[in-house]
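Hello Y.,

Per our agreement to keep a running log of every chain we model this quarter, I'm adding this entry. I've kept the format consistent with earlier entries: sequence first, then predicted structure.
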Amino acid sequence: MSTTIDIETLAWDKQNGLLPAIVQDATTLRVLMLGYMNKTSLAATLASGRVTFFSRSKQRLWMKGETSGHVLEVVSIAADCDADTLLVQAHPHGSTCHLERASCFADAPADGLMELDALIAQRASERPAGSYTTQLFESGIRRIAQKVGEEGVETALAAVVQDDAALLGEAADLFYHLTVLLRARGLSLTDAKRVLAARRG
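Predicted structure for the entry above:
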């Protein structure tokens, strides 16, 4: 968990001892839900590594997923510029919404490439029968690398001699196979994004 939060310096007095806490999927960046924390629930969250709110309706601490098992595993917590709102990034274990949706906000946007990366990671772990991704993983690094090379060439050719739709289709194939290759090496798109971020400026 990454945080420099000092509980005592937050603006608890603004809203009767409660702070709104926006929870965001640490992988896809989709906003998952909004809850409220008091000092005790924030301390419990920091101690357990699982998002714990103060339930205004039940007037008690409430760990997300305490009944369903769909807990939110904390990655980081940060306060906004006024120290009166929290941004919690977490890994959801199951659906966040009680309607069995990923987010309480039905149309909350997410990073599509990171969703793809998460799905490919799941395929790498579970290896479902009949899945093309499973077939790729089982074919080995050399075959996956060969596919990336083929898709790279097809993308370049599409850029030169085909229309935009063909180029976009080939680019999507390239992104997919490159993501599989990274996962086959125990890496992820997040790792590649860190390298890009280090190159800024």
